[in-house]
Design a protein that fits this description.
Radius of gyration: 63 Å
Order of helices and strands: H
Strand content: under 5%
Number of helices: 1
Distance between the termini: 226 Å
Structural class: mainly alpha
Helix content: 55-70%
Largest sheet: none
Oligomer: single chain
Number of strands: 0
């Protein structure tokens, strides 16, 4: 005996009751829920990895910028130090020249103050003229 589908009757199948339907739906729902949770967890992990990479890239960029600034500061300090060294050298030369001038003046003054040897000098010779007067008389 055969019934058509329009009649709403299908092949005879033993009814399991509504509980089996709900149980099957529960299993499917649990499976689907677990899949969604797994997908969300993997999405979260991917986002975490992406953000960690971005944070590392930002840190690298920051470190590079800090290193660049440090190098620029070192260059500026080196220039400033070189300028100061040149200034110190100029000042040193100025003082060395002043010292040379002072030493030259002192040498002149010292030469003027050195004892003079008088051994080459002689006492003035006194010429004495002796006139002899002979006493005599002359009579006229």
């Amino acid at each position: 005996f055969f019934f058509q589908a329009e009649d709403g009757i299908r092949d005879a199948q033993e009814s399991r009751g509504l509980g089996d339907v709900y149980k099957r739906q529960g299993i499917n729902a649990e499976y689907m829920g677990n899949q969604l949770i797994n997908q969300q967890e993997s999405s979260v992990k991917q986002l975490e990895l992406k953000y960690q990479e971005e944070i590392q890239n930002i840190r690298k960029e920051n470190l590079q910028q800090v290193d660049q600034i440090k190098n620029e500061m070192k260059l500026e300090l080196n220039k400033a130090e070189e300028e100061k060294v040149l200034q110190i050298k100029d000042i040193t030369k100025q003082y060395e020249n002043k010292i040379k001038g002072i030493n030259a003046e002192h040498e002149v003054q010292m030469k003027q103050l050195q004892p003079v040897s008088y051994t080459h000098l002689t006492l003035p010779t006194i010429y004495s003229v002796q006139i002899s007067v002979v006493a005599g008389s002359i009579k006229k």
